[in-house]
Design goal:
This protein is an all-alpha fold and 263 residues long. It has one domain. Helix content is 79%, strand content 0%. The chain is elongated, with a radius of gyration of 27 Å. The protein starts with a helix and ends with a helix.
């Protein structure tokens, strides 16, 4: 389901979600209007309006909290990608403090890793996958660096910083993978959808002098809820869909690597 939803262009997905919310909201009112006369519903306007305001307020608080949560996760995903790319750049350029052949080993490994992340893994993330080859490159590089014995205090200082940056690179990679595969729990989605339906249903208890006006207001309420749901959907998995986090930070690092140290 996640792959199907995020495989739809964002503008089409927005039309589908908002349009479906409008249609279902309006259809429900039409059915209620035919089954329950306006004269029967109109005397309940005051109490229905009071209760619906409370329900809408509670629902709005929950939705606002969820929107903030997914937006923060999206921002964290972008920051994680940036930190991972920065760590890769640091490991590459600080390798100048190593003697050959370790210097060449480190730089070749980081260059290959950046290439794989951009050319292969970022596309795999769109489907919830990862590149095992990228993981192996870092694991092998870590083993090579752990086996290195610094010859003097300068190499020791460089080596310590390199190990720290490599660990940071691997930590950010693991966090990126986790963020790319974790979305809102189905229970939370149940609360969102059921809460949305309840808020709209409360409007059906009211009776107005103009059914068209009532239908228009209900449709606008459905559209408002649909927009919020659409926003949550597109932000839920930050590395998927049209507005997903892009590998721009890695592309900057690759461009600098290939300009300063071409193969």
């Amino acid at each position: 389901m996640v792959d199907l939803v995020h495989g739809i262009p964002a503008w089409q997905l927005g039309i589908i979600v908002v349009g479906l919310s409008i249609v279902l909201s309006g259809l429900g009112l039409v059915i209620v209007h035919r089954l329950v006369p306006v004269d029967v519903r109109r005397p309940h306007n005051d109490i229905a309006g009071y209760i619906s305001n409370i329900a809408a307020f509670v629902y709005a608080v929950i939705i606002a909290f969820l929107v903030v949560a997914v937006w923060q996760q999206y921002g964290q995903a972008a920051s994680t990608a940036q930190l991972e790319a920065n760590a890769a750049s640091d490991v590459f350029h600080q390798a100048r403090g190593y003697p050959d052949p370790l210097r060449k080993t480190v730089r070749d490994a980081i260059r290959d890793y950046v290439d794989i992340v951009i050319d292969t893994e970022w596309a795999l993330q769109q489907r919830g996958g990862v590149s095992e080859r990228a993981s192996k490159i870092l694991d092998d590089l870590q083993l090579e660096m752990l086996n290195f014995q610094p010859a003097d205090s300068r190499q020791q200082a460089v080596h310590s910083e390199q190990l720290h940056d490599l660990n940071s690179l691997m930590d950010q990679r693991r966090l990126r993978i986790f963020l790319g595969s974790s979305g809102l729990h189905p229970v939370i989605w149940s609360v969102i959808l059921i809460g949305s339906a309840l808020v709209v249903v409360f409007t059906y208890f009211m009776g107005t002098g103009s059914f068209r006006a009532h239908l228009a207001m209900t449709a606008l309420l459905g559209a408002s809820i649909g927009l919020v749901i659409f926003l949550i959907v597109v932000l839920d998995y930050p590395y998927r869909g049209d507005i997903a986090v892009k590998p721009d930070a890695f592309k900057l690092v690759r461009g600098y690597i290939y300009r300063t140290h071409p193969r």
